[in-house]
Amino acid sequence: MNVPSEHLFFLSAGLFSLGVLGFLVRRNVIVTLMCVELMLNAANLAFLAASRMHSTPEALDVQGPVFSIFVITVAAAEAAVGLALVIALYRLKQSVESDSASEMKG
Amino acid sequence: MLPPPSHAWLWWIPLLPLIGSALCGALHLATLSARKRDPQAKGLAGLAPLIACAAMAGALALAVKGFLDLRALDAAARVLNSPAWEWITVGDPRQPWFDVDLRLVLDPLSSTLGLVITGVGLLIHIYASGYMKGDAGYAKFFAYLNLFVFAMLMLVLSSSLLGVFVGWEGVGLCSYLLIGFWYEKGWPAEAAQKAFITNRVGDACFLIGSFLLLRLFGTLDMHEIVARMGSDFRLDAIDENVKLNIALAALFLFGGCCGKSAQMPLFTWLPDAMAGPTPVSALIHAATMVTSGIYLVVRLNPLFASSPAVMTLISGVGVATALIGGSTALVQRDIKKVLAYSTVSQLGYMFLGLGTGAFGAAVFHLVTHAFFKALLFLGAGSVIHGMHEEQDMHKMGGLRKHMPQTFATFLAGAAALSGLPLMSGFFSKDEILAHTFNSGGVYYAFWIVGVLTAAMTAYYTWRMVALTFFGPERFDHHHVHPHESPAVMTVPLMVLAVLSVLGGVLGLPPVFHAAHALNDWLAPVVAPGVAILNQLHPHEHLSHATEWVLLGLGAAVALAFAHTGFRTYAAGPEPDLAIGRGAPGVAAFLGDAWSIDSAYSRVVILPLRVFAFVVRFIVDQVVIDGLVNGAGSLAKNLALRARGMASGQLDAYALWMGGGAAVISLWWMWS
Q1: Which residues pair with A97 in a beta bridge?
Q2: What structural domains and CATH numbers belong to chain A?
Q3: B630: closest CA of chain A, how far (Å)
Q4: Distance of CA B147 to the CA centre of its chain
Q5: A32 to chain B nearest CA, in Å?
Q6: B516/B428 Cα distance (integer angstroms)
Q7: Which of B113, B368, B395, B537 could bridge B156 with an S-S bond, Cβ 3.0-4.6 Å?
Q8: Which among B380, B375, B400 is positioned nearest to B500, based on CA atoms?
């Protein structure tokens, strides 16, 4: 099966847009975090697609896969910190809605 | 070369009053803190006059010792140097391009002035211990008075112009402090500011003159400057440019003298300075401080002598001041104002003499004037004291019965001031007028004005005597009980009266075939200037016949106008009122000192006030405040608009962030 690389970019852009949309419209912080994960993975997909596009049978491009591994690492750390923040927010406000923490607004 | 510096004791002459001042100041502070606990407490303020008088007596004793030491020397070698204090050194210490050594020098001139300052000063200190008794600032008064004497002695003893300047500013400061001594009353504080500010104009001129001298001679040491005026700066050894610079330096220094010695056009502060206590008027504003300008000109006599135009200007300013002061004194009602304008007028005489090259005569008049004007002021103070602070002569009269000692001594002072024959003022004034007559040219006009002023002097002096001590008693007998002052005040009056009457023996005119003691004494100091003057335009000595005529004329004018003045006012102040009715314009013009004060108000003060108004209400309140407040309100308004961005909603932040990132990305792509 030979999928053209352009299609992978379209899929990546679609996933990223879904993430952005979810981030903007949802108030639940857990869903917001999930949307961030979705955007990061869309970026990973774009990295891999670009790597595939630039690879020839003689010389495989490794920068894209390496970068996506870095992103996965950071995403794991971010998920850990993010979920800890969600727990702290819940303890403080008995809610995981992002609007519940708006004391600092102008 | 200068004689070896070996007279460290000279430093004690100014230091004694300085120590006295510090002690009196400490006493004042102690009294103040004692008064905080108990408002009636006197503290130790009563000790202040003892300390101050002891300091003055010590200084006088040292000044006398210096005088005797000088007399023991040869005339040409009469200079005593103190060790120098290296004050300022700029550049390589071995060969500095600017250095000031503070050194005290006692020579015939500074010795004469030192004796007057400490002698008359001691008498006035003694008098003040009676006059100021009971004043809340008793100790403070003596602290200021001693500080003044210190500054004045620094002024006359210092060899460097910078040292003179320190004294010059010091006496100005003390004058300010003492004029405003009763500042709670309001107007003395204003008079003090007027004196200080007017003097600043002169002081600026003094500084410019010093800078010019420093550039010309590379030193500020006056004795060195005088010496070099006779060597490498001889008139035939310098070019026109240097001559012009010397004349400019002399001109600016004379401007400084105009401020300190109350000459046209800067004399207006002196009459207002009478707001101070009367001993202050006697010491500072008659006997000593106001004569420092005369001292400076005599000290730098070759400098002034080598610029004839400046000399003529000095005489002209002097004689104009004499005329304005004398004519204004004719119509004053305040006894101290009469004496103040008289002082202005007599200082004018001294400058008239200086301008003719009669340096010795000017110092002679300075000395006799210090005696009789201090006497008259102290006598007036005694009258004011006895009259319960009344100064208006129209409300006096007939006081000779109530205050016989004050009256007798006041008569001696009046006789000396008006130049009645054989009194001290007669000889000194006539010596100046004779020199003026002998100088010829424009000086004939000066001489005529001088004689006219002498007539006015005699007139207003005896008008004052008549209004104060003769005629009907015009005061309210229920409230005012004139009484003679205590001995502590009358004894100094008597000493000064003797000096005023006999002071003439210091300088008898040549026709008396006696030695002119003061001129002989000052000869080494004034010789360089006199030599230059003789070289520029040699003139004969007056013949004895001319001199007799001038002396006779002076005596006749003085007697005639003294008699007229006394006769006119012997019955009371009615003639004053008649002048006011008959010629109100003239009376107002003279009463206001030729309207010079109001001219200053219009020409100087009004524009300054307008300028200050513009600066305050437009430049400051509109422009500067507008900029500062505008910056603040700009930031505030911007913040008010921007606060909406921080809505507290996560998605809004994300939108701003994402939008910003998008804009930046687009911008990168396009460029």
Answers
A1: A28
A2: 5-93 (1.10.287.3510)
A3: 23
A4: 15
A5: 10
A6: 11
A7: B113
A8: B375
